[in-house]
Amino acid sequence: MAKDSSGKAVLRRRVAPGTAPQPAAPQSQGASRLDLFRFVPFRLNRLAAEVSAALAIEYQERYGLDIPEWRVLATLGFRNDPCSAQYISHCTRTHKSTISRAVTALLTRRLVERVENADDRREFRLRLTRKGRGLYEELIPRLLHREQDILSCLSATERKAFSALLGKIEQRLDLVQTSREADERKAY
Q1: pLDDT in tens, 23-39
Q2: CATH class of the structural domain 58-141
Q3: How far apart are CA 185 and CA 170, in angstroms?
Q4: Distance CA 36, CA 25 (A)
């Protein structure tokens, strides 16, 4: 960690090349105070956790899946080709040990299967089984309906603007925004 001129520890933030860093909070006389309920990272994290929990009702009660298991199924479901657990971990921003436990549970339930990687026979990739694909296909309309219910507080114009704003933030953080882009950039 870097230190300022007085020797006090200072956290350096990653900033895109060619841009000036912006202060996290306005500086005032005396001690700075952070209002968590106005701090965007806190708000986004809290919102993501609540939305994820609201969606989880659809697959936990009916199918006995937890959030990491759903993330594995969802990632495999939108892909045409098998992928590694590491890909799933990176794509979903979920710790690899959590994904590993989810994969083990899904293998046991025969929703996911391992296939040998043709390029490296030591590595196995994952894909949905017929049973897993059926569950995925059954869940998608329910989850899309739940998503629409959550977003129903926004008008069509607000939803479009919200999506565009999220895209701008993702772009600013150099996050992959589509599965096609992930494949092209070999991002995961």
Answers
A1: 455 555 556 899 999 99
A2: mainly alpha
A3: 15
A4: 11
